[in-house]
Design goal:
mainly alpha; 3 helices
């Protein structure tokens, strides 16, 4: 049985090996990026009734809002940690 550190080390090695064999990193991760944007499109227009261009603009705004929320939560967590707390509740 492997320790947690050994598992992490093995996983890191496997990831490096895979990336060393990947000539086009952008193409390799394209499906994940598409799926991530689809999540926001589903959020703003789940029934796909809006025109494509409008849905994409709204999805992009939802994506930006997502990152702003993440940034705010991160800032709160850092401030709580600095103040000696455990983070946001």
């Amino acid at each position: 049985m492997l320790t947690e550190q050994q598992r992490r080390s093995r996983a890191r090695l496997a990831a490096y090996v895979q990336w060393s064999k990947t000539p086009d990193r952008v193409a390799r991760t394209q499906a994940a990026r598409d799926g991530f944007m689809r999540k926001f499109e589903d959020e703003v227009d789940p029934e796909r009734r809006l025109p494509e261009e409008q849905r994409q603009k709204m999805a992009e705004a939802a994506r930006r809002a997502f990152y702003v929320r993440m940034g705010r939560a991160s800032g709160k967590a850092r401030a709580a940690k600095k103040a000696g707390g455990d983070g946001p509740t």
